[in-house]
């Protein structure tokens, strides 16, 4: 998106708000309610919606401090973590990951990574303690917040406008013995009649951790983050909110990647506007504009390859975006949402290599050679979208939701390398037209029993790596990858049946039983994977295995199916037992193997005790062996394992919270199936990264 286009979007946004404000009516100040910007993505009672879930983030009760925001998904049913170390962690949901998940924060703000190996996903650029809740749409069942393929993950930061007037704040500290980790976070809020402000500061220092066998895993990092949010309510039914945050990552070791991060800096600027209670037919206007920038520097200075060749990559990513949404009430009980949105991501940067030795013989060169490789080839992708979504009660028991979305996606490459031009001689800008649809029916059988049948057609155009990467290693395997500018967009036709129910007990030791399940089936069209292409020659270190090269392509036949089940029994007033089960099966029918990054069966059991000033929790997580693998992706069979975690917290005084925890108390040695393998490490071969062994944590928080 050009600066001129962004200027037009801003004019449209604020011009529309002014005109609508002129026809709005002022509410009685005695009945004033705060204007809430960060509303849930799917309206309704989220706790009873099978395809939508919300999870509250409570660091004071979690005790074990998150490495980054991705750690918040660790205990959410259906999620797994893709781990390259302690810093670069991505969430995976139902075997969808990366751009297959629409990950954002505060209802639309995106921070796109600059590194082709995703050393810097969005989860590294938001303070974990700042996240108030995580919202998840479990498939392509709403398109109000951008193009959606496998689901939406919305990270909602603290909602200052909802708090009582006056000053509020907190400061907390955390520590871990495995890796000598230290975390700290401070927050100060002010809420006035029309004005509010919020300031956050966080610091994290994690060292290398040890696995259950005492082996040290290179994974240390330091990060400093701060954020400022200012809100203003010019009238009773309007709110303007300005947010700015910066993140600074330093000295980051990536056990599962060929280089380490020296600098990982980002800044995010956003402006949100909401106008409520406009008229009888038009209820609400929501608008947002934002800009994010990521600067990333990576080197191989601590790796064995440094003896042969010094490598430094300096890359950056700039994302611009915005959205306008109108909520209509054309007739009673009928909610209609219409809107437009847009975002643009542009990436630049190169890798400089200083070759010091002969790659064939290993002998020192009399004069080192300096080579420069274009990493992103100055590429850009723009997405302009429009959507409509309606919710209408067919009867007292049936609710219909139906929606559609259109996206125009433009991609271009401004500085292609000569060999990339030779491979694709007719390079230029390309425009794609994507149409997504969804329909679902909710049936409230009783006040305590809800069924939902949903269908969604989600469409995802190829990302920049899949289009334009040029002979770089970007997967779990050591192959060079080559992009394909002519990839067709992925299509996910997903069907889902869900149920949620609860039973209340009276006069028994048992208080309440909550339970539910979701079962889904996805038919994929044009699924994008990388396969060996015998027509391509290796570009860098051509005699080093593997000598083949992979090119991104579309699959003809692929599918996914799976389920999640949960049950929670509250008993003896203060106790609860919860069990969860998630499973996903994928099939690449073209290659007769699983799709890459498919997690195994996971069972989780949790026993908790909670009173007003004391709580305790014991969790047993059992992960099954994974034999359904993508061999062409370099995957190996992964053994199953079980991990027990304990935590205890107390609030001895009104404003003071203390907590201790023990993770993996039996010191199990294990690795998750989605963990990357060691790469270019002096003391390791190409084997999967093990997760931490026993880890003791402590936490203290003072609030006011």
Topology (elements, then pairings):
Layout: H1 3-23, E1 52-56, H2 59-62, E2 79-83, E3 89-93, E4 96-97, E5 102-105, E6 131-137, E7 152-157, E8 166-176, E9 181-191, E10 195-206, E11 209-210, E12 216-217, E13 221-232, E14 238-252, E15 260-276, E16 282-299, E17 309-328, E18 335-357, E19 364-374, E20 379-393, E21 398-413, H3 418-423, E22 430-446, E23 449-460, H4 464-468, E24 470-472, E25 480-482, E26 490-504, E27 510-525, E28 528-532, E29 549-554, E30 558-571, E31 575-588, E32 602-610, E33 614-623, E34 641-653, E35 656-663, E36 695-703
Parallel strand pairs: 5-7, 25-29
Antiparallel strand pairs: 1-6, 2-3, 3-4, 6-7, 8-9, 8-36, 9-10, 10-13, 11-12, 13-14, 14-15, 15-16, 16-17, 17-18, 18-19, 18-20, 20-21, 21-22, 22-23, 23-26, 24-25, 26-27, 27-30, 28-29, 30-31, 31-32, 32-33, 33-34, 34-35, 35-36
Structural class by sheet pairing and helices:
mainly beta
C-alpha-based Rg, rounded: 25 Å
Proportion of residues in extended strands: over 45%
User: What is the CATH third-level topology name?
Assistant: Maltoporin, Chain A
Uncertain spans, ≥5 residues at pLDDT below 50? 2-32
- What is the CATH superfamily label? TonB-dependent receptor, beta-barrel domain
What kind of sheet is the major sheet? 22 strands, antiparallel, barrel
CATH class: Mainly Beta
Number of distinct beta strands: 36
End-to-end Cα distance, whole Å, is: 43 Å
Overall mean pLDDT: 91
CATH architecture descriptor text: Beta Barrel
Given the C-alpha coordinates, what overall shape results?
Answer: globular
| Oligomeric grouping of the chains | single chain
Helix content: under 10%
Total individual domains? 1
Tally the helices: what do you get? 4
